[in-house]
Amino acid sequence: MDTANLPPLAASLLPRGGSLHRFANPGRFLRLSGRVLPWLTAAALAVLAVGLPWALIFSPPDWQQGETVRLLYIHVPMAWLAMGGYVGLAIGSVLALVWRHPLADLACRELSPVGAAATALCLATGSLWGKPMWGTWWVWDARLTSVLVLFFLWLGHAALVRAFDDTERGARMGAILALIGAVNLPVVKFSVDWWNTLHQPASVTRINAPGLHVDILYPLLVCGLGFTLAFAALVLARTRAAVMERRIRALQLAAARRAEAG
């Protein structure tokens, strides 16, 4: 097939040989993801089927917070995914800008709506949790404000990559925004240490003495694993669908141009 007249991104999504495309070939990605995705989805459902009932029904209430502590099992994994997902977005943006990896562009494009949803859930559950604990739905606390900035960065990336008719230009602009926004991640992580905030400091990541009892810590970790697997499965499924859609469009464009030439 003659790909000389195709747009660069469309041409890159057609099957090609050579070592340069060994790890960026969409056909290879579709075959691999087709084998991985069912297992990843099944693992996510199985872990959540254990973790959510354990956390929301069978785990004990906190001695101080009572039943409101159950928001922890959603809020904390969503916070992890909001930050961890953005690290993935920044890495994918580097791959897209430096190595012009076409799958990195697509993965970042499909990652940002999922990351925005996780961050929105983090903010919503935090607000619900803050009302009985702090007596207010929202304060301009350093941690809350930096997570809100992170949410806007997710939304900005999702909008920017879709704002241009030239998909490659949109991908470049989105990648630049993602890398600039990565400076907010240390602020989110260390805000409770750098400033005097209402938000409690880290409880799970203290290796010497976690601040949570094991009856709460273990179901939280299981929920965190389950939500992480579900997050990865959703992003993989969205990226797989985007690759197939782009390949279909590229093939249609090539067929139309052959018909015009014939």
TrEMBL record:
Q: Which InterPro entries match?
A: Cyt_c_assembly, Cyt_c_biogenesis_CcmC, Cyt_c_biogenesis_CcsA/CcmC
According to its UniProt entry, one GO biological process term is: cytochrome complex assembly
Q: Where is the Cytochrome c assembly protein domain?
A: 28-199
Identify the domain of life. Bacteria
Family classification = Belongs to the CcmC/CycZ/HelC family.
> What functional role does this protein have?
Required for the export of heme to the periplasm for the biogenesis of c-type cytochromes.
Q: What is this protein called?
A: Heme exporter protein C
User: Which organism does this sequence originate in?
Assistant: Siccirubricoccus deserti
- Which gene is annotated as encoding this protein in its UniProt record? ccmC
